[in-house]
Amino acid sequence: MFNNTPTLTHAQQQAAAEKIHELMAQGISSGQAIMMVANEIREAEAKKNEAESEPDSE
User: Fold this and answer.
1) Higher pLDDT, 58 or 50
2) Are 17 and 38 in contact (CB under 8 A)?
3) CA pair distance 34, 56, nearest whole angstrom
4) Were 8 and a residue from 12, 24, 36, 44 both cysteine, which residue would form a disulfide, CB within 3.0 to 4.6 Å?
C-alpha cells in the first residue's frame, strides 16, 4: 500500500509535520498539504538514490 515511501527519522518526520502545518496555515487543505510534502520527500529520496547509483565520473 505504501510503495515508494522512504523510512524517515524522527527529525525528518518532525520537519515534515511542521511543513504540513505551515501549508495548512496558508489555507491549503490538510490532505493537499500531506500529499505535497509526501511528494517532495519521494522526489528527494529518488534523487538521492539516483545519485548514489551513478558510477563515479572520476
Assistant:
1) 50
2) no
3) 35
4) 12
